[in-house]
Structures are given as structure tokens and as C-alpha cells.
Amino acid sequence: MSRIRIYAITCLLLAFSSARLFAQEGRQELEPGMSQHSTAEAPANISRLSKDTILIGDQVTWSIDVEKNAIGDNDALLVQDAEGKKYPVGGVEYIKGIVIDTADMKIKASAVITSFDSGSYNLPAFPVLIRRADGRIDTLEKHGPRLEVTTIPIDTASFKPFDIKGQMKYPVTFDDVYPWILAVLAVAAIAFLIWFLVRRFSGKGSGDMSVSKEPPHIIALMRLENIRMRKLWQEGKEKLYYTEITDALRAYVEGRFGLQAMESTTKEIMDGLKGRVTSEQFDEIENLFTRADLVKFAKYKASAEENENALPAAVRFVNSTFETELENDKGGK
């Protein structure tokens, strides 16, 4: 029996030793995972990054979680430097400022950061505070993690620099030049139209009358029609309105009666027309020239009726004097 007892005791001792050894190996397997933080409470005191290593210019989210039971009903979270800091630490920049989000039983504060310089950066404490109901400010002990910023390595052994290529030249096609051709043709057409209208409707003096192939009364009527279409006095341009009417009549008188009307005064023109036109024609044209002089030189404000009748009076004078001359020519024959 003693041998059986000794054997049983030996088996129990071996089993106890094996169990102790197994427990020690299990603790050794757990320790490497816990070596990142010295205590179970340490992870709660460190802010986290969505990834701790980035390439230059890449973006990463920097955030913390705050238990709601750590904040009273009347407490509030504050962001340090409310006006906004561009850099949480030298070399690291904010892309998106701190945002506080409430969800479930936790409050999350986060920001998006980046860096354009390679290196290792120790981020500061996460810039969020608690304002208590009594006005006190408590600091959240959320220490900053380390951010590694790397660059893409260049294989200097196989890298071969190349010269800068010269500017590529493309052949000129018709599609490239035809808009310019159209523009030149359009400008030339407009210039020709302006020149034609000026010569046809705006000629002044005896020189213009001699060059034009149209008789004086036709030229005068075309100029008066052009004035009517432009509606000068209706737009408040009374002085220009009467100036152009009298200039058209002066050119007509000069071309029809041979008087130097373009450089003459109203009195000199009227003196030259005496005996050459009827009294009715004389009175109407004299009234028109006198009113035009008042508007142009005496700041006279003509009535709407006077302005409206000025152009028809000029047309009647041209037509009536031309018809009178035709009748005289027929009577002479």
C-alpha cells in the first residue's frame, strides 16, 4: 500500500507542476500584447490615430472618445484655441478642424490632420477641455500619440535622369485660322458699311453734293429720313436733332440755289432765299431755322409739338421748292 500512496503522490505533484508551467506560458503569451501600454488604464488616456504611419500629404483622423458619465448634464466640451490653430505641432497641419459628435454612450471628438514633411512627430494632448457647471475648466488627460510620416523611396541605383523635353509643336490647320479669317472679313464689312452710309447720308458742303450722283432734293430727303428713324428728340437729344435738320437743309439750299449756306448765318441764308421761294415757303423755313438757333445757342426748350413738326416742315420745304422749280422749268419751255 505504501508504494501505491507514493505513486499517487508523485502523480499529483507532476500534475500540479504541469498546470503551473502552463499558466506561466499563458501569461507570457499575453504580455507582448500588453506591452504597448503599461497599465489597463493607459489606452483610455491616449488619443488615437486612424493609422500611425502615413505618406507625405496623406490624411489621417486624430480622435478621442469621452464617456458620457464623465460629463455632467450641465457640463460642456470646449475646443482649445476656438479661433482655430493651423498646426497642432510643428510640421503637422489641420485639414479639418475639431468636430465633436455625440453618439450612443460616448462622445467623440476628431480632427483630420496631415504633414508635408517626413519625420516622426509627437502629437500634443488632444485640445479638448470640459467646462463644468460651476465655471471650472478641467483638462481631459488625452495624451498625443506618435505620427510617422514617410516618403516613397527612390531607387538611386537604377534611377536615370532625363532632360526636359522641348515644347511640342502642332501643325497649323484650317480649323485654327478660319475664326480669324471670319473676324477680319466681318470687320472689313462693317467698315465698308459705315463708309458707305457716311458718304450717302451724311455728306456736308458743296463738295459732297458734287461728288454724289443723286440730285440735291433726293440727298436731303434721305438725310431727313435718317434723322426721323433715329428718334433723336424723343431720346432727349434736341440740340443734335435741330443741328442735323438744319445741316441737311443748308446742304440742300447750297446744292439747289447755289448759296454758300454751310458757312452762312440764318439771316444770310434768309436774305439769299428772298425772291427765290414763295412767301409761305420762306416763312416756314425761317421759323424752323430761328427755333433751331434758339435750341442750339439759347438753351430754348422746344415743346413736343414743335419738335414733332420740325422734320415735316423741312421735308415740305424740300418737296415744295423742288416742285416749284419743276413748274418754272416747264413754264419757261
Task: Describe this protein's structure.
With 333 residues, the chain is of the alpha+beta class. The protein has two domains: 42-150, Immunoglobulin-like, CATH 2.60.40; 201-332, no CATH class. 48% of the residues lie in helices and 17% in strands. The protein contains eight helices and ten strands. The strands form three sheets. A four-stranded antiparallel beta sheet has the order 1-3-6-5, with no helix packed on it. Helix 4 (216-230) packs antiparallel against helix 8 (304-332) and helix 7 (279-297) packs antiparallel against helix 8.
Short description:
With 333 residues, the chain is of the alpha+beta class. The chain has eight helices and ten strands.
What is the topological layout?
Elements: H1 2-34, E1 48-49, E2 53-55, E3 59-67, E4 76-79, E5 92-103, E6 106-115, E7 119-122, E8 128-131, E9 137-139, E10 146-150, H2 174-201, H3 205-211, H4 216-230, H5 238-257, H6 266-273, H7 279-297, H8 304-332
Parallel strand pairs: 2-10
Antiparallel strand pairs: 1-3, 3-6, 4-8, 5-6, 7-10, 8-9
Helix pairs in contact: 3-5, 4-5, 4-8, 5-7, 5-8, 7-8
Strand proportion, as a percent range, falls in 15-25%
Number of helices: 8
Number of domains: 2
- Helix- and strand-based class? alpha+beta
Strand order of the largest sheet: 1-3-6-5
Main sheet makeup: 4 strands, antiparallel
* Poorly predicted runs: 21-42, 203-211
How far is the N terminus from the C terminus? 180 Å
SSE string, helices as H and strands as E: HEEEEEEEEEEHHHHHHH
Average of the residue pLDDT scores: 78
Percentage of helical residues?
Answer: 40-55%
Net shape: elongated
Number of strands: 10
Radius of gyration in whole Å, from Cα? 52 Å
